[in-house]
């Protein structure tokens, strides 16, 4: 049951981002959420994106908007912490991402970080 609960939160996050549903994404992110984007698209930068900035980028159309499918590669839960590795496949990109979650005192799983490796889909 715990695994299903954790994976359902990840599904809500991904599906909300796919459709740019800011309120849905907001509901599954901890206030301390960070997206950790390291050297994406060939640049050398490490970007740490806070929850407010992430939600703004989503509402402005700078993130999301693709119909990505989710493949859960593994889910590990220890106590009130969980880590999910998933592959998100869209039209133009494939994300292999590590999503960290915590269970709060209300017994709700929330995402504290998303650390994707992003690859562009080749036209071959």
Task: Describe the model.
By secondary structure, this protein is of the alpha+beta class. Helix content is 27%, strand content 46%. The chain has three helices and six strands. It has helices spanning 2-18, 22-28, 51-59; strands at residues 29-38, 46-50, 69-78, 81-89, 93-103, 109-120. A six-stranded mixed beta sheet has the order 2-1-6-5-4-3. Helix 1 runs antiparallel to helix 2 (22-28). The longest helix has 17 residues, at 2-18. The radius of gyration is 14 Å and the shape is globular. 21% of the residues are buried.
Topology, please?
Layout: H1 2-18, H2 22-28, E1 29-38, E2 46-50, H3 51-59, E3 69-78, E4 81-89, E5 93-103, E6 109-120
Parallel strand pairs: 1-6
Antiparallel strand pairs: 1-2, 3-4, 4-5, 5-6
Quick recap of the structure?
With 124 residues, the chain is α+β, with helices and mostly antiparallel strands.
């Amino acid at each position: 049951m715990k695994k299903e609960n954790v994976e359902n939160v990840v599904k809500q996050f991904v599906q909300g981002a796919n459709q740019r549903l800011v309120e849905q994404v907001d509901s599954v992110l901890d206030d301390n959420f960070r997206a950790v984007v390291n050297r994406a698209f060939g640049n050398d930068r490490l970007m740490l994106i806070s929850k407010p900035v992430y939600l703004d980028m989503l509402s402005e159309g700078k993130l999301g908007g693709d119909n990505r499918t989710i493949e859960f590669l593994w889910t590990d839960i220890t106590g009130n912490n969980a880590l999910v590795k998933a592959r998100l496949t869209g039209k133009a990109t494939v994300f292999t991402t590590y999503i960290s979650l915590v269970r709060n005192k209300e017994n709700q799983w929330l995402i504290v970080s998303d650390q994707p490796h992003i690859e562009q889909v080749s036209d071959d």
